[in-house]
Design goal:
The protein contains three helices and no strands. The protein is 87% helix and 0% strand. Helix 2 packs antiparallel against helix 3. The protein starts with a helix and ends with a helix.
Length: 98
Amino acid sequence: MLRTFLTFDSFIFPKITQVIYWIGLVLILLGTLVSLIGALGLAASPYGGGGFMAFFMIIISLVVGAAGLVLWRVMVELWMVQFSIHEVLRQIRDDRRV
């Protein structure tokens, strides 16, 4: 196991990809929640510009949050595809050696 770790025969990243995905997911959801709370604060503020601005900010927060979730998922899937390509190439290399 130590030899594999020191010689880069296998990557660590594919094993922790799911943890990284969940951390990013939570951070995106927290950012969206903070933005929604800011929109509610804007609605309650006498200097906020009224209900229209708060409504607009709520809609934008939800759209940006949803887009962030989709883009994060695509990015993590691209990472996974890169590592799966590496594994397939390694199998091809090993099959040719035999």
